[in-house]
Amino acid sequence: MKNKRKATKNLVVFLYKIIDNLHIKNGDDMANFLPVLYRAFISLATLFIVAKILGKKQVSQFSLFDYVIGISIGNFAAEMTINLDSPEFDGILAVLIFGFIAYIVSYLALHSIHLRRFFMGVPTIIIQDGKLLRNNMKKARLDMNNLLEEARIKGYFDLSQIQYGVMEANGEISFLPYAEYQPLTPKVMNQKVTRDYLMGNVIIDGRILSQNLRHFGKDVSWLKKQIHDKGYQEKDILLATLDETGKLTIFNGNENIIPLDVLE
Question: Rounded to whole angstroms, how far apart are CA atoms 236 and 253?
């Protein structure tokens, strides 16, 4: 509770400093602040709509074309927000036009491998049969330090363990180790494994998701009985999952547990 009050106090002080830095002390300053606030909301709403249309790509999955489009759209949105001399409609129109272009290019790339290669790029082999390809590294603008860093991040501290390394179109590097350095799997060890099932969320933040329940052939009354039999209350459950076999797993808030703050 003390930490919550301290966090709230810090937030209030932070907001006060922001307002103080804006120097909103008279009507003229407020008249300038409100249009910026209004344009910021319009800009954010427009960006959100365009992002929803373009799909769920993460920043790390952006191709060069996606990156250019993203920078341009962000620049338009920022200009629309802070440049009060330009009509906000111009900024909205620019964002929508670039978003439309990105959507069209993405659609065409799905249906043409040549356009896909041109706009999205192609993978580049960096390591082949354990040998570094200097020319391809130069072509990909990849130096030795970057390659070693990427290898360490993927868990390879010795390049001699890597048979193939490929720089993907989005800039990520994929590694294929030699067979003797690959992790063991049940198939390699001739072990029989049980089948895994897809887990569905049936409660999130104390709210029952009845539609997800119906996918597993269950109803709300069945779920409530299971919850009460296990000694839980719906409002205390952060997450409950259900699989195709009827296995119900419950995670409550555990508010009485004192966290070990040893990672700061």
Answer: 6
Q: Is 112 inside a domain boundary?
A: yes
CA-based angle 162:192:240, to the nearest 5?
90
CATH number, position 229: 3.30.240.20
Q: pLDDT-derived band of residue 65, with 50, 70 and 90 as boundaries?
A: confident
Count of Cβ atoms closer than 10 Å to residue 97 Cβ? 13
Instruction: Kindly calculate the radius of gyration of the chain based on its CA atoms and give it in whole angstroms.
Output: 27
pTM tops 0.85:
no
- Provide the pLDDT for residue 61: 57
Which amino acid is residue 262, in one-letter code?
V
Amino acid at 175: F
How sure is the predictor about 202, in pLDDT bands with cuts at 50, 70 and 90?
very high
CA 220 to chain centre: 32
- What confidence tens digit (pLDDT) does each residue in 216-243 have? 889 999 999 999 998 888 888 989 999 8
User: Whole domain around residue 177: which residue ranges?
Assistant: 124-181
SS3 197: coil
> What would the mean pLDDT of 74-100 be, rounded to a whole number?
76
CA 39 to mean position of chain CA atoms = 26
Q: What's the angle, vertex CA 230, arms to CA 226 and CA 236, rounded to 5?
A: 95
State which H helix or E strand residue 11 sits in.
Answer: helix 2-21
| Structure-block tokens of residue 125 | 């082999």
For the record, the structure tokens of 101 come out as 């272009």
Q: Determine the Cα angle at 192 with ends 191 and 197, to 5°.
A: 130
Whether residue 168 is found in the same domain as residue 223: no
